[in-house]
Design a protein that fits this description.
With about 400 residues, the chain is mainly α. It has 20 helices and six strands.
């Protein structure tokens, strides 16, 4: 017989980390909640994936009968989908149902700890593209803030900025990418400010925290895109079709799988978890490979191993990384550099880096691209030479131990 109370407590224990003495560990909690770790995503998928599906399907609605059951259900509906379905529109699948939890009207402060009240009702409300919900969130937060650990008072900024964004735009601009919405001018300006981009990971540095993606990770993701396209070029030139006859991707480690999914997101522009010919063509064009529609279709067929393929799944996409490239690695790296070096000066400027990175991933902020340049620019002259570019990618390759370049 399933013990639902034990499952609920297990979920709460997982999200609210404590030290050996049983004291709540605020920084460990923040790292878990906002760190966007590949390892965490994989662990949640293995341990709680089936529960998330059940919760979204309404099979655990009876958990709403108690306040603590509501906290556990909120974790499955509001939090874990963001781990399981990262970079797809399905991240938000549970948000609407989560509002049913708020509507139950339990006395949250009386029944829950202050940090649990951050989850119910505050986080549920702040994830709604609704101005009244945002106002309710900030109002409720003000009641619990005096009782929170000091580390958690970062939520004042988060909740107030969510309210500000919805007040200005009516929606969260970073979701436009997934919902196929046109981003407003105000939204584009907000997207440039990484301090307002709570969809980005939390980075802890020098005793402070900020939102943004580590520059090394961004360079790795960019390298993976080129890995895929260079393999596709090679297979296309050699007319080697049918790389996806077997969809067994067990050869990938969890880390490789996570990186591959990051790369797939740059092709799967609408977050539908499949890649269309238009999406593949747009990435090919962005990196100096303007395939004709016929050749794009040939590339689709090469990846899937099927004739007249209409889309490419993640599993089919991942098989590209199994194929070997026979030509010179340094030659390919030089070709990559030339794509960044738009004016052919022999140096990559910040503006040139922005052009190339944005053509691959419109969600990367200016601040993150600036960090990418600083990561590569070991001389500190504000530009990236080919020598620095070469050393960067070889360093990243040796650190990761991955099949890169």
């Amino acid at each position: 017989m399933v013990n639902h109370q034990e499952i609920q407590q297990d979920l709460i224990n997982y999200m609210f980390r404590r030290d050996d003495a049983g004291k709540l560990d605020g920084m460990r909690c923040l790292t878990l909640w906002f760190g966007k770790s590949q390892d965490t995503d994989n662990q949640i998928r293995k341990q709680y994936g089936d529960l998330v599906s059940s919760a979204i399907a309404g099979k655990l609605d009876h958990w709403m009968e108690t306040p603590r059951g509501c906290v556990a259900l909120m974790i499955l509906l509001d939090q874990f989908p963001r781990n399981l379905y990262r970079h797809t529109v399905h991240m938000y699948d549970g948000d609407k149902k989560a509002m049913q939890i708020v509507d139950r009207g339990h006395n949250w402060q009386e029944s829950l700890t202050p940090e649990e009240c951050l989850f119910v009702p505050c986080l549920i409300l702040t994830h709604q593209e609704n101005l009244d919900g945002q106002k309710q969130c900030v109002s409720y937060y003000e009641k619990i803030e005096p009782h929170l650990h000091s580390e958690f008072r970062i939520f004042r900024t988060i909740f107030e900025e969510h309210l500000k964004i919805i007040n200005i735009c009516g929606v969260f601009p970073h979701r436009d990418h997934y919902y196929g919405r046109e981003t407003s001018e105000a939204g584009r300006m907000l997207m440039e400010d990484s301090t307002l981009r709570f969809d980005l990971p939390l980075i802890a540095e020098n005793g402070s925290v900020r939102f943004g993606t580590d520059s090394s990770r961004l360079w790795k993701a960019t390298g993976h895109v080129f890995d895929v396209l260079e393999r596709l070029d090679y297979l296309s030139t050699q007319r080697q079709a049918g790389v996806a006859n077997s969809l067994n991707i067990d050869w990938m480690s969890d880390e490789q799988m996570a990186f591959c999914k990051d790369t797939f997101r740059k092709f799967d522009k609408d977050g539908s978890n499949s890649m269309s010919s238009q999406e593949l063509g747009s990435v090919l064009k962005a990196v100096g490979r303007p395939y004709s529609p016929q050749r794009v279709q040939e590339a689709m067929d090469i990846i899937t191993g099927r004739s007249n393929s209409e889309s490419i799944s993640f599993e089919e996409f991942a098989t590209l990384l199994e194929s070997d490239l026979m030509d010179d690695r340094d030659k390919r790296l030089l070709e990559r550099f030339k794509l960044f070096d738009v004016d052919g000066s022999g140096e990559i400027s910040l503006e040139e880096l922005k052009i190339c990175i944005r053509s691959l991933d419109s969600l990367v902020t200016s601040a993150e691209i600036d960090d990418m340049l600083k990561r590569a620019d070991t001389s500190g002259d504000g530009q990236v030479s080919y020598k620095e570019f070469y050393e960067l990618f070889h360093t990243l390759k040796s650190q990761a131990g991955e099949a890169s370049l």
